[in-house]
Amino acid sequence: MYLQKLEIQGFKSFANKTVLEFTAKGRNQKSVTAIVGPNGSGKSNIADAVRWVLGEQSLKLLRGKKSEDVIFSGSPKKPRMGFAEVSLYLNNEDGSAPIDFREVVLTRRVYRSGESEYLINKSKVRLSDVLLLLAQSNFGQKTYSIIGQGMVDAMLLATPLERKEFFDEATGVEQYQMKRDQALNKLKAGEENLRQAETLFAEIEPRVKSLTRQMKRLAERSQVEAELKSLQKKYYSHLWKELTGKMKNEETRVAPLAAKKKKLEEEISEAEGKLKVMEKEQPTSDVFRKLQTEYEKLFEEKNRLRERDMTVKNKIALFEHVGLSRPMAMPASEVEMAIEDLFQRYESFVQKLVKAKEVGDLANLKKEAEGLRREFADFFAKLKREPAKHEAAKIDPSLPKELEKIAGEIEKINRDLTEVQVKIENFNREQEIERRSFFELQRILQLKQHELYLLTSEINSIQVENAGAVARREDLEREIKQELGDLGNLGESAGFESDWRDKIFKLKHQLELIGGIDPETEKEYKESSERYEFLKSQITDLRGAIDSLMKVIGELDGIIKKQFDTAFGKINDEFGKYFKILFGGGKAQLTLKKEIKVEEEEAAEGEVAEVAPAEEKKKKGEEFVAGIEVEATPPGKRLKNIGMLSGGERALTSIALLSAIIANNPAPFVVLDEVDAALDESNSVRFANVFDELTGKTQFILITHNRATMQKASILYGVTMESDGVSRLLSLNLEQAEKAVNPA
Predict the structure, then answer these.
(1) Confidence class of residue 118 from pLDDT cuts 50, 70 and 90?
(2) Residue 131 counted as domain residue
């Protein structure tokens, strides 16, 4: 794997899109690119761009205060940019990166709003994805992949713990360390989750046990309810069918009665119609009334004639009695008037006498009769004593004729009366026949009405019974719906048993003894049981996961220790070798600073807290590497404390250490930003020779002012900055130029 191309746009002073291309390293081909330029031209921004695209988060190393500071801020002649973007093109034909692409493009982009993006081959990813890929590809941020200004001394002046971080990367265990850190984070999260799950489990377990007991009661209740419901289905089905059958029987009984009632009503209607017709024919009674009236008139006329006849006869008898045939002193007219008056008084007396007989009161009429008799006697005596000087009173000759006439009229009236009497008798006979027919029809009508009444009463009685059955069935339907929920739930009623009702009562009583259970209990039990089983399963899974993670961590610890120890030994040897080359002698070595864990689960104080994202668990009494010490003794000196070395000596020592790391575990490419700035000319030559030896192992991008270093480069980029504040590149392929000048 090697770096093919670097694209920069909007990053710091590189406002315009700038592309740097690099050559591939090979067996007989070096890949050294030197970037030169005056101070302030922006050449170190190229190293910052590489560091930034590789995921660097330290604003201090990026020489900024906030993330937006990496975006071109503008100049009087150039407006500021809205975003910064850097893309790193890596050739992955050898498969160094565990990704199925021949070319890997890492891109990082940031906007002035603060939003940022990471992309691998144009697909958005997380920072952790980028860091893991780089670690698996043997890249690093903290050691030799990118060495910036001032970082040469920092490697030596760092604390043992910080120095160990460099060596984790340098020994190639960083990818395992990252996996270990991830496993530790998962372990910590898993243990926290386990603690919470166990706490919740302890809280819910008593409730689940209580609910389980209730559910047993509920199961018992459900069994009784099922038996009750089954029995109720048969019992209610029997009652339902019994009532339904009874209603059908009553309907069957009503049908012929209703037909008979209808026929009776028709017959009664017909009889009533006939009676109405007969009543309308009653004008024949007018004939009877006329005959009766005529008869009464004739009878009255007959009586009148009889009275008249009687009067005439009385007069004649009176005249004959008093001898009215001789002359009288009184005038005849006066005599007649007197006689007439006496007769009227006599008739009045007779009427009183008749009434007195009816009421039984005759005593009061004796005096009146006696007085009337004396008046008659006196009148008749007076008539006898009357002198003969008066004209003779004679019987009216018309009286006998009148009697004859009256007798004739009476005879005629008698004939008429007889005729009318015959008509009346005939009419009465006809009327009697019709009356009898009318009364017979009335009698028949009354019988039929009575029969209709009885029939209606019977129908009403049946209908009342049927209504009662309907009401009972409606009540039964409500009861069935209340007990069974729906009529469709009725079962077969075959084999009815008389004790079903008692059994139902006993089952209900049994349910009462079991007691009511909150309807929410089953729901709560289900939820709690699910929660209980989930927590139980989760605890089992978490314990299994924790065991697996601890096993993975143990395996990773073994790999890390083995690889670290092996690589550390080689780097230590190479460090001594390159130290002697650069110093022309002397001695240098690396030593591991080991400590023993005093308290279990206790985090290291101070800087140890920054070892990993997750706090490592170290058992009490366990030995662990707490840091790395660097010992360097230049030739002719007895110094061990590197803090006592001069600046040049520290630079050479750092270069020796860097060379040892590269020789043991070369990164795909290394960026060195003015690491040779503190070297004098002779030391620069030594550095160039060592550097030239390492070019076969990795690809170098050098930012330098040193001529000896420039001479080892195959490509030279010059960086300038014009008045608009924008950095620009000039490139020169030195190998091609040399071939052009000195052709073979």
Answers:
(1) very high
(2) yes
